[in-house]
Amino acid sequence: MFLQVMSAAYTEEQLDGGDSRVVLRLPAALAPVKVAVLPLVKKDGMPEVAQRIVDDLKYDYNVVYDEKDSVGKRYRRQDAIGTPFCVTVDGQTLEDGTVTVDELVFTAWHTPGHTPGSVVLLCENYLFVGDTVFQGSIGRTDLEGGDSRKMDESLRKFAALPVPAEAQVLPGHGDFSTFGQEAATNFYIKNALRNA
After folding, report:
1. pTM, whole model, 2 decimals?
2. Is-contact 34 51, C-beta < 8 A?
3. DSSP single-letter state for residue 107
4. φ and ψ at 90, to 5 degrees?
5. What is the 8-class DSSP label of residue 125?
6. Do 112 and 61 meet the contact criterion of CB atoms below 8 Å apart?
7. Per-residue pLDDT tens for 148-179?
8. Which residues contact 121 (CB under 8 A, 6 or more apart)?
9. In terms of C-beta density within 10 A (0-12 exposed, 13-18 middle, 19 or more buried), how is residue 166 classed?
């Protein structure tokens, strides 16, 4: 079976100028490395932002950080080993918190409280909230790294996000809801706003 998967995934692409490159198109579930985080350059704060993203993802996914060579060469390296997702941190990331994952653009907001590195990600009309917010609830703050004061600050930030009310809220586990529903009915968000 291993040989069959590797044979089906192995691809040689022809490039302009007659060159070719090897691409390993592994199914995402079988890829040993799930995400590569690539700062566009090794300066201007991009490596630090990229490292924060790695730190946030490393507990759930096998993540690599790569800053060696040009970003094009780094993408090619990841293609060659079958990495399904590459996150690029660039100048736009520093301006407004957006990152590019292949062709999708994500806006990220740091929301510590459940963990120090918690983030909320907006992509199109989907808000990936991890364990910051659940339908009608929030992530725990009584575990190592949790901080109820920071969670309250993050909930106030969450309620003020420039996100349409109909955006789908997708937690790390549990049922989906909408941004409008959580802003209007989530007891913990309403309580954090009252205690501001």
Report:
1. 0.63
2. no
3. E
4. -135, -170
5. T
6. no
7. 999 999 999 999 998 999 999 999 888 999 99
8. 106, 107, 108, 127, 128
9. exposed
